[in-house]
Amino acid sequence: MKHGRSAGRTGGPILVLGAVLLSASPTVRLSAQTDSVRALALRIAQTRPDSGRAIMRRLLARLSPQDSLYPGALFTAARIATDAVAAATNLQRVVVEYGRSVWADSALVLLTQLYFAQGDPAATVQAAERLRRDYPDTPLKPRADFWGARAYFDLKDDAHGCALIQEALAWAGSDVEFRNQVTFYAPRCAALTPTPISAAAAPGADSQPKTASGAGGYAVQVLAVKGAAQVDEMLTRLKVMGFAARVVRDTSGLFKVRVGRYATRDQAQQAQRRLKTRLGGQPFVVEEP
């Protein structure tokens, strides 16, 4: 996984290096130094979690949110967070605010594990399916498949669960331990014909006819803001209501929450009416390329 890159950069007097960087000017943001401080925080957190968190708080205070190193620091802070809420908040920020960074797919995998541990299979499935949809070429997809499959099984949806188990096995690679974990669930799929992967959809998702790939279509926009907190709140509300939503960021920096990919304007307008009734506000139909 990507976050493993920092583990090998801890050589030398790392405690001195960490102290130097954390006391240095905010303009000192070399990637190697930042990675070493992140590795230091992870190492210290194993025995002194409060000290590890303090290191990450100082590093985040030194970095600008516009810095390319910021999402990696957020990801590390999430890994050693004091509780699940703090961890989820940082991971969601990585996914929403830095969706094009090298940390976004790793953050989604950790979210699948976190949601599953919290007993929220619907959120687990949503995170797993989002990774599969937004990052189809990531080598982390088998991990998300595994947690998504377990969540589908908890939701009594063995067909979709088995489809993900099948995909996870196909891409498990040479990791024997992970392959054994996936194989443990394979027998329950022996008598089933798994639902094709392309047909898998998060449970409770609003019925949304999809457009052909690259064919354009319509969506319903329900929010356009600059703050990630408002975005997370709206995504959660929509999930609870059964709508599958996504975030689009335009050149102005706004986060736009949209629902659906509809083939026709009439289908989008039907969804718009449902959203206005259940959500309020002024949702409107947008045409997408």
Which percent range fits the helix content?
A: 40-55%
- Largest β sheet strand count, sense and barrel closure: 4 strands, antiparallel
How does the helix and strand content classify structurally? alpha+beta
| Beta-strand fraction estimate | 5-15%
Radius of gyration: 21 Å
Indicate how many domains the architecture comprises: 3
Outline the low-pLDDT stretches.
Answer: 1-30, 198-214
Distance between the termini: 33 Å
List the secondary-structure elements in sequence, H or E: HHHHHHHHHHEHEEHE
Strand element count: 4
Report the total helices.
12
Strand arrangement, largest sheet? 2-3-1-4
Overall pLDDT level:
78
Shape, per Cα inertia axes:
globular
Structure, described:
- This protein has 3 domains: 102 residues, no CATH class; 90 residues; 72 residues, Alpha-Beta Plaits (2-Layer Sandwich).
- The two termini are 33 Å apart.
- The protein has 289 residues and is an alpha+beta fold.
- It is built from 12 helices and 4 strands; from the N terminus they run ααααααααααβαββαβ.
- The longest helix is centred in the first third of the chain and has 15 residues.
- It has a 4-stranded antiparallel β-sheet.
- The radius of gyration is 21 Å and the shape is globular.
